Amino acid sequence: MRWSIIKNDFIKNKAINMALLFFIIFSSMLAVMSVLMAVQTFTSISDLYKVAAPPHFLQMHKGDIDEAKINKFMSENKLVTYSQIVNMLTVYGENINIVGNDYNYNLSDCRLDISLIKQNRNRDLLLDTNHKKVVLKDGEVGVPMLLKEQYHMEIGDHLILNINNTKKEFVIKEFILDSMMNSSMASSTRILISDTDFDALSNGSLKNEYLIEAYFDNPNDGETFKTLYQDAELPQNGQLVTYSIIFLMSALTDIVTVFVLFVVSILLILVAFICIRFTIMTALQEEISEIGTMKAIGLNFRDIRGIYFNKYKVLSLLGVVLGYVVALTSSSLFTGHISSTFGNMKLQSLSLILGLVANFIVFILINHYCKKTLKKIKNITVIDALVNRNVFDKKKKSTKDGLYKSKRLSVNWLMGIREVLYGFKSWLIVLSVVSILIVMIMVPVNLLKTFESPEFITYMGSSQEDILIEIENGDKLEAKYSDVKKVLTNDPSINNYYEYKTIRVKVLNADNVYTNMDIDSGDNAGNGLKYLTGKAPSAENEVAISYINSNEIKKVVGDTITILYDGKEHTFNISGVYQDVTSGGNTSKSKYKFPTLPSTKYSFSVNLKDKTDVKNKSSKWGEVLGEGVNVDSMDEFINQTLGGVSKQLKTIVIVIIIIGTSLVMLITILFLKLRLAKDSSEISILKAIGFSEGDIKKQYMIKVGGVSILGIILGILLTNLIGESLVNAALSISGIGIKNINLITNSLIEYIVFPIVLIILILIVISLVMGKTKKFEITSIVKE
């Protein structure tokens, strides 16, 4: 009997039940997808790391090294369980050509530092997509997945190396997985060649770069070891990273994706709750006489509730099952980046189990909410149900206003506005759902816009200028500094520029232990950055520190910090705490020039008079200044550093926009179907007294369209109010050096284009659904 009731209801209210089903499917799908992605990200990285064995400490170095001295230090250090020195050969993008069947190009626009390497024996291995150690024959080459994502290339293509009168042709045999350098944020990448080819190229025509790697029992010992290594005055001409930073750079793109999917799934579950409540309340109101009759003949609350609850139980069960299936079948759309970066891993058993758990939670929440809503049946009395009938809105009062006196508004506008104004509670579902879906769409859109904006450079430790120039540490550091100064001084196209000198000092941390800290010093140091608290340093005895440094040394704005250099302790005041995702977030800024300390790096930020010449000028300077100097436009710097994150996020945003707009149309259909069933008598009376079907359609367009516009406005306001809080909550626990960002909006898209498109779609849906009013006639009401 119960199944017959459910079956008949499904047949009778197909559109309503289908709309509810889609809401549950989407909610379940995204909840499962966020869990699948989170588990797959961390398990895939862990599985890759088990085989590839990346170092817990890595110091890159360009220039000569004393291997005996390094090995002696490693062997004497109690933290180190294994160490190795890996030799690489430095090449540049312009030295590499890719030749395929119908394409031939070079990598001159690649900002990544490219090196040739031979396979290691036991650790820091380069693997194929099945996590097998890659072994190449002479003339073969393994290209990192990071380059394949940025450029079109296939297995069998030719890679031609042409540098310093050395020309060598290779065939692409494998696309390799690099456990360390798999993100554009790493700024470096490695191309694998055979041992024989590597030895042949190591004839002095190519420059050497070394990877000094150390392993510990506890990977977290990397920070402690870093200070010991730097104090030993061992080679440091290059980036220094620890295991935690390597892991974070690897996972960042997918962490952002997981966060977006999780937030969207929560919002969709909320929307599903609102829709289910509205559907239940409408059904109870329409069938109040039947409920009264059932109570009159002795059926108890549980029996009556069961009749309604079973339908939603079946609906939610079907929805979460289909949602789970859709999530599994479409998982490749979202996990493609994980597979390409960390290997062709099947969905892990843990992923499937936790996905089921997430699905079960969605099912329980929906059923619990249905039960809670159906409790209203308990308070219905037989007299209320059979006599008063208006059980759920007893406080409704007559309305008095002057709208009917308006001579400017037509009758259709007057009737539409009056019903919305004085029956606003019944229209809240449209307002609520549209506003929530706007938040669901706009937060990811604004996050993408922020990542792609030139302003994001201020979260990367630099002020917003046109061109960034960095001089790498090395024997020619000071000579290159003089070359850059000469170029900038003699170029009339420059409006102004700032220079920064990076030095290394010792800082007393919270445990009263001295640790190393890099400080960028210069007249403009710290200006134009995004500060959590405080401001840029204004005096020579002030220093601004990064958010991560602030956490590590347990210092805040207003505190003093003890800095050791030249054999003496010096006290500086902390003027501000800023945000920085570069160099692991361990940076500081000061106006003081530290004249007695040697520089470890120089950088310049340049503003041009003609902003349209930035790309050409940066390219020209790069050619003039040559090796050892990186010259990039700020836009190019951000794009190559965060391009992988933006690309993945863009895919997610497109999917969310499609889902969001589809759900807005679905909710419009759901609401109108229920509303028309409820208003059938009123519509029949209106038609009987002379209102045409066109008039009635116009009234509903005014009602639903007007409330939808209010929902869009409310959604935009909520996005601006809580959007940043949602994003910042995730950033604060990510450990990437950013805690608080200001989302950048695309005003034209957010405030004009998207609302107009959404309203047009809603009006089209209303027009289609309102065709059903043809069957509403006064004769049918009289017969009833």
Automatic annotation (TrEMBL):
<feature type="transmembrane region" description="Helical">
    <location>
        <begin position="427"/>
        <end position="448"/>
    </location>
</feature>
<feature type="transmembrane region" description="Helical">
    <location>
        <begin position="700"/>
        <end position="722"/>
    </location>
</feature>
<feature type="transmembrane region" description="Helical">
    <location>
        <begin position="314"/>
        <end position="338"/>
    </location>
</feature>
<keyword id="KW-0812">Transmembrane</keyword>
<dbReference type="Pfam" id="PF02687">
    <property type="entry name" value="FtsX"/>
</dbReference>
<feature type="transmembrane region" description="Helical">
    <location>
        <begin position="751"/>
        <end position="770"/>
    </location>
</feature>
<feature type="domain" description="ABC3 transporter permease C-terminal">
    <location>
        <begin position="263"/>
        <end position="366"/>
    </location>
</feature>
<feature type="domain" description="ABC3 transporter permease C-terminal">
    <location>
        <begin position="654"/>
        <end position="768"/>
    </location>
</feature>
<keyword id="KW-0472">Membrane</keyword>
<keyword id="KW-1133">Transmembrane helix</keyword>
<feature type="transmembrane region" description="Helical">
    <location>
        <begin position="652"/>
        <end position="672"/>
    </location>
</feature>
<keyword id="KW-1003">Cell membrane</keyword>
<dbReference type="GO" id="GO:0005886">
    <property type="term" value="C:plasma membrane"/>
</dbReference>
<protein>
    <recommendedName>
        <fullName>ABC3 transporter permease C-terminal domain-containing protein</fullName>
    </recommendedName>
</protein>
<feature type="transmembrane region" description="Helical">
    <location>
        <begin position="243"/>
        <end position="276"/>
    </location>
</feature>
<dbReference type="InterPro" id="IPR003838">
    <property type="entry name" value="ABC3_permease_C"/>
</dbReference>
<dbReference type="InterPro" id="IPR038766">
    <property type="entry name" value="Membrane_comp_ABC_pdt"/>
</dbReference>
<feature type="transmembrane region" description="Helical">
    <location>
        <begin position="350"/>
        <end position="370"/>
    </location>
</feature>
